[in-house]
């Protein structure tokens, strides 16, 4: 017997600490419609940690960082996948689910890292550094992944680099991630000049000011931040690793040097922790809304397609990553 659907009214208690009551009516109709549409269309919603709480906690079926979403996408038992995130994530879900319909609610939900490099750039790097393996961050297009030996995420980048057993590795496109990984290994890392427009704005001075204003605060930084920021932080890791850190250590007060909504989503699970929020917002993630998720499900809007020849090569690089 199919159980009763949750409702927007029943879900509000989950997010009441981060969404004021006055705002909730603006979300309720879309939430109820999406919950019904998921069942009618045999659909699931995958949501990245940077999605807003009304998406992350109220309509998503699978949540996490890029690595978690990539792994869990392979186990999805549904005909339709809606990716509440940016375009490269939707492409990755399609690579891992070639026979399913993958939708992205807004085609303009891009990424500064993905935009910083092309497949031709990777081919030129290979010419300049022959025989050096290419590790490509998942924050790239399928065409770039297809030119790579293996992909990585911020959560497994070090393990991926070590798995290659090579003295030199090309790591693309995030310069800061590459430098932060290089600091943890003797492998020579050849980097690209791509940057995340959210994380590149954080500075070491920001952290010092936070410590002065909030004595005893725990500072957690994403490895897409500049190395000086990572050096000043108490811990650096992927969004999943930051969430796990809060769960394990339960700091009295914490700041997450990453995208705005991450703090809101972790705060829902840890009401005893005081989150200080220096908010750098990702304009691309914020293009995803309840309204366009609903429209995507109603109209099967924005189907993700990848050239089969590109998909075959890109899939190999992603799948190789998942077995590291």
UniProtKB/TrEMBL annotation:
It is an enzyme of class 2 (transferase). One of its GO terms (molecular function) is 4 iron, 4 sulfur cluster binding. It holds the Pfam family NadA. Pathway: Cofactor biosynthesis; NAD(+) biosynthesis; quinolinate from iminoaspartate: step 1/1. Gene3D superfamilies: NadA-like. Its cofactor is [4Fe-4S] cluster. Binds 1 [4Fe-4S] cluster per subunit. Its EC number is 2.5.1.72. HAMAP family: NadA_type2 (MF_00568). This is Quinolinate synthase. It comes from Mesorhizobium tamadayense.
